[in-house]
Design brief:
about 375 residues, mainly beta, 10-stranded mixed sheet, 6-stranded mixed sheet, about 0% helix, about 35% strand
Length: about 375
């Protein structure tokens, strides 16, 4: 008979069992035949004996087997005779779990899972499962990918939730720190559906927003050592115009009747020329200047860069390098030939030809 003593903090310091000689030094094994003991002595209370029972009962020792083992150091093994930690579970199954079931009002049942192949979950993953909602709340895959609300994360950190606002909060409580939230917005969130937002919760302001169409908005100044724009070829400002629905490529002048507004050009060599409506021929604006609330407008007018311009051959055919000016037709440009009238009336230089009639001419806009 061999006696193992648990730490002195335990009231019952006896775990009594007979062991066969182990083939591996230092490893205890349960005997394969029945073992009987004359007495089970409680070493914490001298002279007291403990009864053995095949069912759990007060002051009785439940016989131990291969499914429940306690070694000489007090480590507990479930399904293992060599527990490497204080509590170790070992089982050959697709789903090995520990259930925590709180039956008190408001309590829930949670299960910690270690998944193997054939479980319906990524093999080797660790999962904290909310059984009440039947959802994986936290998943760590064998390759280190982490999922919150997802049982199969595809990136380093995946957050999945069916909610109008899904966010990741970064809260720095150190002096000078701020609270930031990265949001993915859905319908009914009060924000653009499908938008990604970096929100400064300390100031309660969206600092950076990308909507579902790819349109980005930055709230505040931007400092960069280099900026490359690949989505457009001209610099524009938006203006209010006297006419509605002005066609792209139209030549615009300063409206003498309404300060701050533009209107279509309608006479040759007009020194009030301001620019060309952007967007003709599929060429989009590359950079837009605006001050919301003060200098707003619906019509994007290019004042620098390459745009297609509506042109006419009324003053002769147009070749690359020709200067363009306003014509007698509304919103239409023509070749500038009268040197005495070109000062302040040139839209820019033609980069393509127009031999007859009307058409679009690619123009390097530079109002002079």
């Amino acid at each position: 008979m061999t006696t193992y003593t648990r730490p002195s903090s335990c009231s019952v310091a006896l775990l009594l069992c007979a062991f066969a000689t182990s083939s591996s030094p230092g490893q205890a094994q349960l005997p394969t035949t029945d073992v009987t003991a004359d007495a089970l002595v409680d070493q914490g209370v001298p002279g007291r004996r403990i009864r053995a029972s095949s069912r759990p009962s007060l002051d009785s020792l439940l016989p131990l087997g291969r499914e429940f083992f306690v070694d000489g150091t007090g480590s507990v093994g479930l399904g293992t005779l060599s527990p490497p930690e204080e509590l170790s579970l070992r089982r050959n199954t697709s789903d090995l779990g520990i259930s925590l079931d709180n039956t008190h009002t408001g309590g829930r049942r949670w299960v910690l899972f270690s998944h193997g192949e054939g479980s319906g979950n990524p093999a080797g993953s660790f999962v904290i499962q909310d059984q009440a909602a039947d959802r994986a709340r936290l998943t760590i895959r064998a390759d280190g990918l982490v999922g919150i609300g997802s049982n199969n994360p595809e990136w380093g950190l995946t957050i999945e939730r069916r909610h109008p606002d899904v966010g990741l909060e970064l809260r720095n409580t150190y002096p000078g720190g701020r609270k930031w939230v990265l949001f993915s917005h859905g319908n009914h969130s009060g924000n653009p559906s499908g938008a990604f937002v970096i929100h400064d919760k300390t100031a309660d302001r969206a600092r950076f927003t990308i909507d579902a169409s790819g349109h980005a908005v930055l709230d505040g100044p931007l400092t960069t050592s280099s900026l490359t724009i690949t989505g457009g070829a001209d610099l524009v400002e938006r203006f209010e115009t006297a006419e509605l629905g002005v066609p792209p490529g139209s030549v615009m002048i300063i409206d003498p009747e309404s300060p701050g507004r533009l209107c279509l050009s309608d006479r040759p060599y007009d020194t009030r020329v301001a620019g060309v409506v952007s967007g003709a021929g599929g060429v989009r604006a590359g950079l837009q200047l605006a001050q919301h609330g003060d200098l707003d407008g619906e019509t994007p007018v290019a004042m620098l860069g390459r745009v297609f311009v509506r042109c006419s051959c009324e003053n002769g055919l147009i070749r690359p390098g020709d200067r363009l000016t306003t014509s007698s037709r509304a919103g239409i440009a023509m070749r500038a030939t009268d040197q005495s009238k070109t000062d302040g009336a040139v839209i820019g230089k033609a980069m393509t030809c127009l031999e007859t009639g009307d058409g679009l001419v690619l123009t390097l806009v530079n109002v002079q």
